[in-house]
Specification:
With 212 residues, the chain is α+β, with helices and mostly antiparallel strands. The protein is built from six helices and eleven strands. Helix content is 27%, strand content 34%. The N and C termini lie far apart (39 Å).
């Protein structure tokens, strides 16, 4: 299955999601990689990572770009040669990109109980004890993790801490949107965060508030 979902967040910002059901050969169809990326893929031991990498190139193609249009800075942040912003994510059988004329971050995660074991590393876990059941806690923790991961990608600054510097405003599970703040180096900035849930996965994409 090729393109799973396309979302127009607002004019100039688009999210594209791929369901990775094809094999590596099929995902390589019509894609030309730069020599350094050919070497990178050849050195990947995990078939999931190889397919994830190529599915992102298929998403680039869907958006009108090619592998040679994408480059990374010294902080590992992706860029497009035409000056548009891009952010990339993949998890198991899904990958996604967001392309925008303004800074943006995206993350996809599989909903798994293991997030309860690491929650204390990225959020005050006591805040979630009032939720109805284990599944609700797992869902909300995954939403918050995705929000913070997308914000981390957007901010792209070494030393930024999920727990200490990124604050996600509380939200109802049914709302599927929230705001967030980053407090770092005596500077604060505000963001909008939108969520999606599908097939046991959570996706979040974050972008600056218009009044920031």
């Amino acid at each position: 299955m090729p393109l799973y979902k396309t979302i127009t967040v607002h004019p100039g910002t688009q999210v594209l999601i791929w369901s990775i059901t094809e094999g590596f050969t099929a995902l390589s169809d019509g894609v030309t990689l730069r020599p350094e990326n050919q070497e990178r893929v050849a050195g990947m031991k995990s078939e999931i990572h190889r397919r994830g990498f190529m599915s992102v190139r298929q998403l680039l193609k869907e958006a009108g770009y090619a592998d040679h249009d994408l480059w990374y800075d010294t902080n590992g942040r992706p860029h497009l040669k035409d000056g548009n912003y891009i952010t990339i994510t993949h998890s198991f059988e899904f990958s996604a990109i967001a392309i925008s004329n303004a800074p943006i971050g995206i993350d996809i995660e599989k909903q798994r109980s293991k997030i309860l074991k690491i929650a204390h590393k990225f959020t005050p876990i006591a805040e979630y004890k009032t939720l109805a059941n284990h599944e609700a806690i797992m869902r909300k923790l995954t939403l918050v993790w995705c929000a913070k991961e997308s914000l981390y990608k957007l901010y792209a600054t070494p030393g930024l801490s999920f727990l200490q510097h990124i604050e996600v405003s509380d939200f109802a599970l049914e709302a599927m949107t929230t705001t967030a703040d980053i407090f770092y180096n005596s500077r604060s900035s505000n963001y909008q965060v939108s969520f999606l849930e599908f097939d046991g996965f959570t996706c979040a994409f974050a972008y600056p508030s218009t009044n920031d």
